[in-house]
Amino acid sequence: MNSPSTSCGRQGGTKLLLGLLFSLLGVLPASAHRIEKRFTVDGRPLVTVRNSHGRITVRSWQKAEILVVGDHASNLVEVAAEQLGNRVEVTTHATRENLSPAELRTDYDISVPEETELQVRTDSGTVHIEKVSGEMTIDTVAADVELRQVWGYMVVRTIGGSLVCTMCSGRLEFNSISGNVRLIQSLHSSVRANTMRGSIFFEGRFLPGGTYSLTNYDGSIEVRFSESESVAVSARTINGRVDSNVDLKPPVRYRTSLNPQHASSLFGMQREGHAKVELTSINGTIRIRKRD
Question: Tell me, what DSSP letter sits at residue 277?
């Protein structure tokens, strides 16, 4: 028969173990709040993602399925992934107002068929899309966007977020208040990039029949292309300067009274001028460079 002191000792030990268990539950990592859902789709599906803060990664795979994996750190956030026909909607809901970025953070890893249309909207964090072909619209406040080996019609709109697009092709429209844009190994047939206070960098091919319009208010604009490309270039800046080491024919330069020591405009062609390139800035420097 157990003595009262022994029973009290066992009860105390049980309480201690329970206390430790609850403490561990209180510090579980973000993966404790996790969803994983699969959806079977046909043809070219549409995936929409609505998030507030966190990382959104979309990659293609060779399956007629969409896999959504979502991780969030706080129980003040709810994640929903639903299918409506050939459309999959992924949404993050805050259960109350005025949550901190840490409480709002939700990370998504989404696998889709290669031919998929995307609509992504987020405030902050990052958006990464890789090896997806289709129309896509991306709207962010401060989130940076990275596209890699993406084909199709891309529309990216940000307030402060920047865009890096590597080995992409098709049509691109980029609009931002202060975000930068970098197009690396570009094979776009059409680019319209407009940022008020960001810089613009283009390195790639200007395709025959393509149109390229790069515009900002402040910040630099730099384009690099090879001597073998057929390009007609128009570069204008009011308070900045145009700096070129490309042999354009005929090179026509103009000066302005606002900045008489530098040419503020340059017009010319390389070869037959089959691609149309327009570079416009108010205060920025425009650089036109040969690509090795």
Answer: E
Q: pLDDT tens-digit profile of 187-234? A: 999 999 999 999 999 999 999 999 999 999 999 999 999 999 999 999
Dihedral sign from CA coordinates of 235, 229, 207, 118: negative
Which residues neighbour 112 within 8 Å (Cβ) at sequence distance 6 or greater?
45, 47, 58, 59, 60, 61, 66, 118, 132
| Nearest to 220, CA basis, from 284, 281, 271, 140 | 284
| Strand pairing report for 106-113 and 65-72 | antiparallel
Taking Cα atoms as reference points, which of 96, 143, 115, 137 lies closest to residue 45? Answer: 115
142 membership: H or E segment, kind and range:
none
Burial class (CB in 10 A: 0-12, 13-18, 19+), 156: buried
**What are the two backbone dihedrals, phi and then psi, of residue 32, each rounded to the nearest 5 degrees?**
-65, -30
Which pTM does this prediction carry? Answer: 0.85
Q: Is 14 helix (H, G, I), strand (E, B) or coil?
A: helix
Q: What is the spatial distance between Cα 131 and Cα 153, in angstroms, rounded to a whole number?
A: 14
Tell the residue number behind the tokens 């953070």, with chain if given.
105
